[in-house]
Amino acid sequence: MKYLTMIAALAFAGSAMAVDCTDCHEKIDVTMHTEEAATIATCNDCHDFNDAHELDMDMHTPDLTIAECADCHE
Ligand code: HEC
Ligand code: HEC
Ligand code: HEC
């Protein structure tokens, strides 16, 4: 899965960027979120993430960590 994520990251590096979260949100406090070990699977423990956004699960595997979001998002 890590390998697939990397391929996807490379594939998107040169094309139109993924959504820029900071267009609508405060910059994510990555340190705090890393300490909480936040992954796609746990966002909903603290946020109404799934209600607000629909994720493409090919791109966003449940074990994807918050630090990895920055590979494609700001
Ligand atoms: C076009 C504007 C827009 C963009 C871009 C956007 N969001 Fe959102 N987001 C919203 C709206 C609207 C909501 C629902 C209202 C709210 O809770 O603020 C929301 C809700 C959320 C929530 C739940 C908030 C909570 O506390 O319940 C999370 C987490 C979130 N977004 C993460 C992201 C991430 C990560 C990105 C970047 C990949 C992103 N958003 C990009 C508009 C946006
Ligand atoms: C242990 C609880 C917890 C988990 C798990 C968690 N967050 Fe958060 N998150 C917070 C807190 C606390 C804040 C700061 C207060 C706030 O803005 O709601 C925050 C803030 C944010 C913000 C900025 C909010 C805004 O509207 O500006 C985003 C975006 C965000 N988190 C995304 C995520 C994503 C994506 C995940 C899953 C990968 C995640 N969080 C998992 C607790 C959590
Ligand atoms: C490999 C690159 C990549 C990674 C890593 C990645 N994303 Fe994304 N993401 C994308 C692309 C490309 C899109 C836009 C296309 C789509 O919606 O499928 C997107 C869309 C989104 C959206 C939808 C925004 C909307 O339009 O509502 C959210 C939310 C989001 N990502 C959150 C995250 C979070 C949270 C993480 C980290 C846990 C993450 N992404 C990691 C590439 C990535």
From TrEMBL:
List all membrane-crossing ranges. Answer: none
Tell me where in this chain the Class III cytochrome C domain is found.
18-74
Listed InterPro entries:
Cyt_c_III_dom, Multihaem_cyt_sf
Q: Where is the signal peptide?
A: 1-18
Q: Return the Pfam families for the record.
A: Cytochrom_CIII
Going by the entry's taxonomy, the superkingdom of the source organism is recorded as Bacteria
- Record keywords: Electron transport, Heme, Iron, Metal-binding, Signal, Transport
Protein known as: Class III cytochrome C domain-containing protein
Source organism of the structure? Shewanella eurypsychrophilus
